[in-house]
TrEMBL record:
It comes from Pseudothauera nasutitermitis. InterPro entries: Haem_Oase-like, Haem_Oase-like_multi-hlx. Transmembrane segments: none annotated. It comes from the Bacteria. GO terms for biological process: heme oxidation. This is Biliverdin-producing heme oxygenase. GO terms for molecular function: heme oxygenase (decyclizing) activity. CDD domains: HemeO-bac.
């Protein structure tokens, strides 16, 4: 019997190699308590808006579009902005943190944003139950894509594991994901004034 050992694909590597950063997001969210009040939640949405703006900024790059063909169905910057308006909060200002980021790092930024739609299912539930928000008012940024979270995620993972993406660039995608997690971490720290 022959055993073939295949190297883990990009999606698997991203999950494994950024697991600690994901765990850090949980810790920051626990400290931040975004569902303690609508006022606190608005701070979360402000952070989400700035992060989504960084991510959507990358959509204009033709190389990113080629890697993820359904980009027009992704991104939650507009949803976050509408949520801020619902909550009576103004849109935060600030420069784009992903300026100059291109493929393959850009794909790592998209990974963090798209992956966060999975965890958002839990956050959406809390926003509904604790704050009375909905997919049409205040919690659009946490709602599922029209086709459902699982379907949108499955197609994104297929884009990550596309055979046309040269394995030589996988490390750079992971570097991009790491930078995106760092950015969200900084935004949470700033907006919730965490130490
Ligand atoms: C307390 C807040 C959070 C909770 C409870 C949470 C929960 C989860 C859960 C349960 C999954 C796995 C879903 C599945 O496999 O079906 C997941 C995946 C993921 N989450 Fe979170 N999450 C949170 C915050 C975040 C934040 C703030 C980010 C990034 C800004 C993030 C990024 C991701 C990514 C990238 C994945 C995909 C992991 C993979 O399968 O490769 N999460 N999250």
């Amino acid at each position: 019997m022959t055993t073939t050992i295949t190297a883990p694909g990009l999606a698997q590597r991203l999950k494994t190699e950024t697991a600690e950063q994901h765990a850090r997001m949980h810790r920051l969210m626990e400290q931040a308590r975004p569902f303690a009040s609508r006022e606190n939640y608005a701070r979360f949405v402000a952070a989400q808006y700035l992060f989504q703006r960084d991510v959507v900024h990358l959509f204009a790059d033709p190389a990113v579009k080629a890697a993820v063909p359904d980009l027009d169905q992704r991104g939650r910057d507009d949803a976050s902005l509408a949520d801020l308006a619902d909550l009576g909060a103004s849109a935060p200002q600030g420069s784009i943190a992903s300026e100059g980021v291109a493929m393959p790092e850009a794909l790592g930024w998209l990974y963090v944003s798209e992956g966060s739609t999975l965890g958002a299912a839990f956050l959406f539930k809390e926003a509904q139950e604790q704050l009375g928000l909905t997919a049409e008012f205040g919690a659009r940024n946490l709602a599922a894509y029209p086709e459902g979270r699982a379907n949108a995620w499955r197609r994104f993972v297929a884009a990550l594991d596309n055979e046309h993406l040269d394995p030589a660039v996988h490390d750079a995608v992971i570097t991009g994901a790491s930078a995106a997690y760092d950015r969200f971490g900084v935004l949470l720290e700033e907006h919730f004034e965490l130490a």
